[in-house]
Amino acid sequence: MHPDEYAKMFRVEDTHWWFAGKRRLVRVLLDSLPAQPNRKMLDVGCGTGGMFLLLKDYGCIVGVDESALALGFAAQRRLATLSRATLPHLPFHDEAFDLVTVFDVLYHRDVADDQVALQEIARVLKPHGHVIVTDSALGFLRSAHDDVVHGARRYSTHEMRDKLHAAGFAIQKLSYANLFIFPFAAPWRLLRRGAARSDVSESPAWVNALMSNVYRTESLLLKRTNLPIGTSIIALAEKI
């Protein structure tokens, strides 16, 4: 990712509707897990640590990222133990974690082989441990945003299901996400092909408040069913 993007993300991700909405949707999956005191969690590709704001409620966090700049921002949160690492080379013993989270990482061009990356995640998970994945969906949505954040691929739910199964996981939840913004995001992405910047920017308070209600509704739907389409995918799987 371009260095300027890290500073931008750190500045906005606590309040921006996109990041807050992702935390709300991931909470649906976290709340479906059995209660577990002292859960040990690994956040792979933790970036500037925005998801720590959610994960701190569910256990002890270890965060890794390939970028020293990103880890510098994440350290300011004082919510996780941090180290520099990237997939598929995680510096941990076999079966070290109860939960691994992979938020918008597998799509990245620095992950040369996403299947090998998922196998490495399975290695560091305890038996019956869980992985939570979010990532970019649907190849036709590719735009300049993907280029700026170094995105190499986008997924269908079918593709992600096959990859998780091949890595030794049983699917517990797999759905598209960001359903309600899809009708607006799809033409926006297509129109902005060739623009040399990402979609991340400051958002007015009223927009954040409006979108908070949108994501509250989507999270309620996600609790009950899988969503038929969206700009992202979200998955919960168990190591078998």
Summarize the structure in words.
This protein is of the alpha/beta class and 240 residues long. The chain is 39% helix and 21% strand. It is built from nine helices and seven strands. The protein has helices spanning 3-12, 17-31, 52-55, 68-75, 114-124, 144-148, 157-166, 182-191, 205-224; strands at 40-44, 60-65, 81-84, 97-103, 125-136, 169-177, 232-239. The protein has a seven-stranded mixed β-sheet, with helices on both faces. Helix 3 (52-55) links the parallel strand 1 (40-44) and strand 2. Helix 1 runs parallel beside helix 4 (68-75) and helix 2 (17-31) runs parallel beside helix 9. The longest helix has 20 residues, at 205-224. It is globular. The model has no long low-confidence stretch (mean pLDDT 91).
Percent range for β-strand residues: 15-25%
Q: What percentage of residues falls in helices of 4 or more residues?
A: 25-40%
**Largest sheet: spatial strand order:** 3-2-1-4-5-7-6
| Straight-line distance between termini | 33 Å
List keywords for this structure.
single chain; 240 residues; alpha/beta; seven-stranded mixed sheet; 9 helices; 7 strands
Give a brief outline of the structure.
This protein is α/β, with parallel strands linked by helices and 240 residues long.
Write the topology of this structure.
Layout (H helix, E strand, L loop, with lengths): L2 H10 L4 H15 L8 E5 L7 H4 L4 E6 L2 H8 L5 E4 L12 E7 L10 H11 E12 L7 H5 L8 H10 L2 E9 L4 H10 L13 H20 L7 E8 L1
Parallel strand pairs: 1-2, 1-4, 2-3, 4-5
Antiparallel strand pairs: 5-7, 6-7
